[in-house]
Design a protein that fits this description.
Blueprint: E1 4-12, H1 19-30, H2 40-66, H3 73-89, E2 93-101, H4 106-115, E3 120-125, H5 132-146, E4 155-157, H6 165-175, E5 185-191, H7 195-200, H8 226-241, E6 248-253, H9 266-275, E7 280-284, H10 293-309, E8 314-317, H11 325-336
Parallel strand pairs: 1-2, 1-3, 3-4, 5-6, 5-7, 7-8
Helix pairs in contact: 1-2, 3-11, 6-8, 6-11
């Protein structure tokens, strides 16, 4: 009996925390035309001539700090999510896991589904908010690979799930493990993007970044905007937890280069809050469905240390969705829609 194919795709991770594997990962990741969206010649000079050679040894040290007996936390939880989803969906479905960069590759996962003679393929990029550099990149590669098949089964994609009710409930549940009243302020820190990538996604050419608060209201014009979807995720979480509008801030981390990225930057918000006398911060990272370098090191270590140096006391990360049973339920609902 033919099965329905489900392809889960996360960003990816190096095969090991050694510098040589970091080089391979960064090279593949940053050479993606949707990640660094500049002409290929300039991108090649930047990535292969500057970023990869100089950044790889430093990034290797960061990965070594979070690598454990299970290897990469992102890959560890991704494998568990795929396994639990397969168990949840049963024998009528065939679940495969892929990484956009490194292993297991999207190409190999699609080949396995093809060999299994699945009757259809549902692709679920594991990024709650849509961005051209993440979800868009996954969609493009899948379509490029499948376009070479002689027989193409029905294929569908999950564009985003930034407002998924179960996801909101899980993050809220994880936050309640901490004493919410003991924190002075809440941050919703999303992975950053260059402003130019937001502008490229504005097909009206007269809305994006025209006002300082254009992303704070989610509407038909900005419904595919990464920043607007992030603000909407934050709003839903704040409502779920009863956090007042002046009790939280949406911000963006992981900048690269000197050009403007989506603002406010998390580092600037830390300085502002410390200057206001805030001592304890609770931080969500709702752009990720599994804890990874950006959550376990950038927030838990770097931002904590930076905030203490500024006069604060503590930065507490709210754990990600990881292997929470309710997230598997959410994935199952996406798979069968």
């Amino acid at each position: 009996m033919s099965k329905k194919g489900i392809l889960l795709v996360n960003l990816g991770t190096p095969d090991s925390p050694e510098t040589k594997d970091i080089r391979k990962y960064l090279d593949q990741f940053l050479m993606d035309e949707r990640v660094i969206d500049i002409p290929k010649f300039k991108r090649t000079l930047l990535v292969k001539g500057i970023i990869v050679p100089f950044r790889s040894p430093k990034t290797a040290k960061l990965y070594k700090a979070i690598w454990d007996e299970n290897g990469s936390p992102l890959f560890h939880y991704s494998k568990i999510q795929a396994k639990l989803l397969q168990e949840k969906l049963g024998d009528d479905y065939h679940v495969e896991l892929a990484m956009r960069y490194q292993t297991p590759s999207i190409e190999s996962a699609l080949a396995t589904l093809k060999a299994g003679l699945v009757e259809s393929i549902k692709v679920i990029p594991m990024f709650p908010q849509y961005a051209s550099a993440s979800t868009g990149s996954v969609m493009q590669l899948v379509m490029e690979l499948v376009s070479k098949w002689q027989t193409i089964p029905p294929i569908s994609f999950v564009n985003s799930f930034h407002d998924n009710k179960k996801m909101i409930e899980i993050f809220a549940e994880n936050a309640r493990k901490h004493d919410l009243k003991s924190y002075d302020h809440v941050l919703f820190s999303f992975h950053g993007l260059p402003e130019r990538q937001l502008l490229k996604c504005d097909h009206t050419s007269n809305y994006c970044l025209k006002t300082a608060d254009c992303c704070k209201t989610f509407n038909d014009t900005n419904k595919f905007c990464y920043s607007a979807q992030g603000h909407d995720t934050a709003r839903l979480l704040a409502e779920e937890l009863g956090i007042a509008k002046d009790g939280y801030t949406v911000c963006f981390q992981s900048r690269l280069g000197k050009e403007p990225w989506v603002q406010p930057y998390t580092t600037d918000v830390l300085k502002k809050l410390a200057g206001e006398g805030k001592k304890r911060l609770l931080v969500f990272s709702p752009a990720f469905v599994a804890d990874c370098l950006e959550t376990l090191y950038e927030i838990t270590v770097e931002y904590h240390e930076e905030f203490r140096e500024l006069g604060g006391e503590h930065v507490q990360l709210v754990e990600s969705l990881n292997d929470h049973p309710k997230f598997i339920e959410a994935l199952a609902e996406m798979a069968v829609l």
